[in-house]
User: Fold these one by one.
Assistant:
Number 1:
Amino acid sequence: MTYEVSINRCHQQAIFDIRGIRPDLDSSLIESGMTARVEKGKIVLSDELEILQLGPRRILVKTALENEQQVEQDFRAALIDTRRLSVVNVSDLYLGVQLTGPDALEVLAHAVPLDLYEFPPGSGTSSAVFSLTAIVICEAMNRYVLLVERSYLDYVQKRLRVCALTGETAKWQ
Amino acid sequence: MSKFNSRRLPSGGHIDRNHPLKFLFNGKELSGYREDTLASALMANGIDILSRSFKYHRPRGIQNRGYADVTSMVQLCGKNESPNVLASIQPLYEGLSARSVNCWPSVNFDIGASLSAFSSVLPSGFYYKTFMWPSWHLFEPVIRRAAGFGRAPAKKPEELYLSRFDHCDILVVGSGPAGLMAALCAARSGARTILVDEMTGPGGSLRYTDAKFDDRPALNWVRQVVSELEDSAHVKCLWNATAWGYQEGNMVCVTEREPQHLDILGRNWKIWAKRVILATGAIERPIVFENNDVPGVMMCSAVMEAINSHAVAPGKKALVFTNNGSAYQVLPYLDNAGIELAGIIDTRTTEQIHRSELIRDRSVEVLTQSFVRKVVANGKRVQSAIVCSRDNQSFDRKIECDLVCVSGGWNPGVHLFSQSRGSLRYEDSIASFLPDQAIQATHCAGAVNGTMDLAGCLAEGAQVSAKALSAIGIQAQVPAVAKLSDSTQTKYHIEPFWSSTTGDRPQKAFVDMAGDVTVFDLRLALREGFGEVEHLKRYTTNGMGLDQGKTANVNAIGIIAHHLNCHPAEVGTTTFRPPYTPVEFGAIAGSQFGEVVLPYRHTPMKNWHKSHGAVMYEAGARWQRPGYYLKAGESMNDAIKRECQAVRNQLAIYDGSPLGKFQIQGTDALRLINLVYTNCFDGLQIGQGRYGVMLNEEGLVFDDGVSFRLDDDQYLLSCSTGGAPAVERKLDKFINVECPELDVLITPVTSQWANATVCGPLARQFLQTADSDIDWSLDALPFMHMQQGNLAGIPVRVFRVSFTGELSFEINVPSRYGLELWEYLMEIGQPWNICPIGSEANHVLRVEKGFLSLAHEVDGTVDPIDLGLGWIVNRKKSDFIGKRAMEIRRQNQPERHELVGLLPQDPKTLIQEGAPIASGRGHTQSEGFVSACVWSGSCDRTIALGLLSNGRARFGETVLAWDCGKSIPVVVSKPVFYDAQGERLRM
């Protein structure tokens, strides 16, 4: 038997790592003139941005790679007067792998020590993934994305496929 | 009845007679049935001896149930070979192949058994006292070969192990009556529940007894409860799964063997539970008497299981030997199996024995206040028992029997509770240890808690579960407790009786069967002063092997107490540690094997490097970098020499992507940098960089690197490749714990940037031909400055930093462009003979320059002044990490190891890194070591760096480097061999 899950690389996205000095990062963002709406613990889909709250002082903003420069400029313009926020383009730091299917949670439980049942759709967090530091996102029921350091992507994808019992073990023994 | 299954009963048991199975044992084909264990199938086939014992090669068979049956060890053969498998827990399957362990040439005729004749000279700790001359190592291989159990398989298994995580509200360990009630209560209350049991099916003791609930077999109730649990979406049931470790954070490690519906060998679970309910039951313990290990001596519960679960008669004529009432339960089972009862030997007085229905109507002889002194065997199996009266020990009576059913009482399964750091207490009423104070969120229910009656276990399971649920804020829905129809249980009433022998002679009266530890061994240890129970355990290995104290510990403690004339509570118990049972390494490793045992980080140019002859090395922090690029016909040294020449004379390029990088931002960014580096970064202009050295709290060099100012409050801090993870942890700790008031944010960006470093005297001229808006001139881009712009249409950051000592441009691009940039530079560099170089050439070049390298010169013992970097320590700064520690040490320890250059007298001699240095004036005491030694093309000789005591005062002195027993004269020199003024890198 194999698990019913598909494991695929995500297209590269533009990702901005925003960290705040104050714990109320969301209000800092709003004060700074950013138009995106932030709900704690939720991804809020605006027209072009996905905002993922990783903690009280850290969010990730994701958007399509073609919007990278525009969004970076917007951030600069919006945050020009604030020193309370750090916006770092980390688009090349992370690459994503997506797990989709009824057994996505079961397969992910082989990689992630988090309590995935208490990890509602739209939430994300920094966590160990096969003992590597990564970001785990629950996009929807039965759909998860792992953002991992780019050079570990192949490794994480391979191990997930082994855990899903897709029969690929022999290839990398 | 076929010639096989000669001991199989014609009816009964829970085996599936419609599904016969063939299997091999020691190469012989045998048969059994589905739902048999390997042990029950072997017993049914009349096989008594399964293996030979660890030390004396005694014949061993089935004695106990489940994981307590440490004498039933075999080696599983075939594609998933595994050593030391207990036959009592190994489910039988078609084609299973197993063989005996620790015997040669066969289990029935084992040459090693002759060791028994020398047992008087092989007591515990014999190897500490004997075999010392001429050397223990002379004897060790022979002794190791003679001892031990199964052999580790030479090949890896064909099937897979996995490991996974889970979380729940309630974890119930054990699915006996108490465990099932606890799980049912949790499940009906809506709690996320996980139930684990080490056996292949649920029920615990109910699987082998005839108990009835509400006038129906108890197993019907078990099936009904399990069905309800398995149908609940929020409940997971893991069968054939042993909870073997209880860690901090209420995390329990469970190994599930051959999980249902998955084609894998096993799976390790790490389960975090808000509450853990231990319903681990109790293990029947033996009584120690001479030859208590021979096949045919079995625990009463094991006999009941053989008859009732597997329809096997383990003997023809049985003698029951007990010190408690539970043993009497075996009598009707013996009757049902047609086994003649030779008698009952009870150590208690007649008044202590509860005369239940079980013996009232029998004509069986009950010898009270008596004990079995020894059993007599024919080499393979029990033939008779010698019984003795406690009143008149000189009176011996021989009773013919081929089965001795023993019950020495019950040991509550407190292992996991003890592992959770909960304390234990000795309870006289059950003559064993019980859970006392829990440290973690742990509850105990049933026999593990000392509740020895069935009705009590059922009620307690529900009560404890309700309590656990209440503790986590869940309203308990307590299920009705099933009514016991007709209790066939006898009163437990135990009178401690540990051993029939005093141990004053080297008799074979075994306390720990897994380790062949006898009463004589315990006595010997006591005589030799190992009176403390933890010392005695280690000296004798009692309870340390497969047994893990399941059957051996309490008996040993009782025997020690008897000999010390004290109460067992005063002796105390040892600490139980994981694993509770043997766990395969494969199960712990899970899917982490093959090429992914440790994953490597790769730069975007990895494939280019490999396709151009690069030999890849790990460069620290799991990064792989080219070590050198081999061309046809070249040796490694040729390649390194060629690459060094290219840097010194022409044009080279290397992949510097793995260098650690952190973006630091905030109004206190400068303050942070000034705190973590010894020098001052005030006055650094935007676009300018400065070298810095980082110390640890002890004032010793921790890492070094260059930091550039990117913007008003924004810096890019770089560090060594290997040191990046530690630097990240240090910075994180610093801003979150030590100085949380700092307004500063740190983002690690190492993998965000790929780096191609162009170096060599022609580097500037070459880059000026590139398609770029960067001004490469010295005025626009001097040493330790940076520019941002475009190169071949790619956004780049260019830094003027040099690790080679030559003119150097570090070109950084977002990683997605790394390969594109590299290929572009290689293409336009072709007319320039641009040469890709690896880390080996880099190493040679940095040694020529006397530049530091982590783990070479920076070995965790030196401060900046030792390394000749006194100029970088700004003593006027009010503080930096390590300042005070360094200053205090400097006051008290004037003579220290200092960085020096070393020139071997023979200019062609290479010295191994790490070679110690001695003064050579008749002194051989180490005064330092060689940290690096290379062949330098620029110097046309070997050169070395080293740390030498008071080194800077010894320039010109000849010392000796000791390399594998050879002394090599070397002259101490300044540690810079090339371009001492640094003019070339500033060009």
Number 2:
Amino acid sequence: MSTIGYESWAVDLADVGPVYPFQGSEVLMVVIGVVFWLGWHLIQFQREKAHLEKARKMGDTEQIERALERY
Amino acid sequence: MDGNLNALTTIFTEFYYWVTVVFMFLIHVGFCMYEVGASRRRNHMHTLMKNIMIIPLVTVTFFFFGWWIYWAFPNFYIFGGTIDWESGAANTPWSPNMGTNLDDRITGVFWAAFLLFSWTAASIVSGSVIERIRSSALWVHAVLIGSVLWVIDAAWGWHYAGWMVKYLGYHDAYASGVIHAIAGGYALGVIMVLGPRIGKFASDGTPRDIPPHNPWLLTIGIFLIYTGFWGFYAACNVPLISPEAIGGQITGVTWTATNIYLAPTSLSAITFNFLMSLSGGLMAAYLVSKGDAFWTFSGGLAGVITASAGNDLYHPLQAMIVAAIGVVIVYNLHGWVERKFKLDDAVGAVAVHGYAGVVGLILAGFILWGAPSSPFEGYATINPLGQTIGAVIMFLVLGFLPGWGVAKIQSMFGVLRIPEEVELQGLDFADHDTYEAAKADIIEADKAHLAAKARA
């Protein structure tokens, strides 16, 4: 048994196509990938929103002036 | 891959595109350095992160759907065309060609070469919006421009079977329009909604210069972009192909390099023209900006971008002159638009990429008037009207309008721009605060340890 469909390389390479593991499950892998991508955006969006809300109340005038002076 | 010649050609082509990808990575490094150098200290970590995360987000989405769009959309709903499901099938994310496959040694490197163009398109937009856009908002734009919109324009006007090439005679060998005009137009749409940075304009409307916090970083950044551009040019070519494999009207058995339309050119030609257009751009920008360092360097880039549409066929001196003309127009247009519409394009991306791309397309229509756009029979020849319509499609239809529309929606929901307080204190303020606290804490701990040791 081999996850890539070959247990040895005693083959004519002209007959060999894909060699990645779990061939046949490509659609499932794409679904997992898309969920990961969209989930990332969702988590990042919520975190940035919360961060900006917190950050707008952080600095006092003196601190902000120092930040502006630093350029 | 049977037969020595076939094997050699396949491996050479695979390696050729791989090298171009490595070179093109420098474009993104250059953009990152340029943006960070141009931003003020209180923003530079967020500015850097905003651009770095374009890499993974555009990469995965280009894998999911961008690459498929390129192959399926060349005639999508134009003049009765439909989605080309057959060509698209081998380029879906679930196709066996999109993975480790000993029967296909080209798709991965060809995909990557296109992907690096996608990063560039998104990165161009990223530069113009620094210091006030939310990262989450920019990353939506990055996916749209990098994995959808520029890919549609590439399918239409940068594909040997694209409808714009067939019917308009559209010619854009090194992407004046398909990358630069669209990205510049998109950036213009976004900054129009986003608004300028605080303090950019005086109360009487006069624009203020916001100097870069690190001029050297900008300089090295733009030089890296020049370097990566070599790879970009090479990646736009097919390095070696026989007339038989092209299957068009070329007779005889002489193998050649071709542009993306499979029409003949050579690496020698594009090397001449890259360097001469870079030089024409630098010289014109130096004169027109009265020696301003950053406009001079950017002018070199704008010069190459202006000449790029026709750099597969131009004479080197034509490339130089076209670049110089483009830079003079671009420089003056940038200043006029900034003053007239109060637009804050932080790195001049709309001008250097957008305006230069449009000017380059139109000039190519005149200079290459009547030249074949394709080696295949029945295609329109290159002409000024086709190039002008092409420029409008790139800059306005696929660039400006979607950028403006999506930014408008984001603005309506209050998720486009950072709060004013955060813009003033700087995006990195919270990180600086954490950094300072961590620093004070560890210094205190070390001092306590030292004191304890002294007592012992």
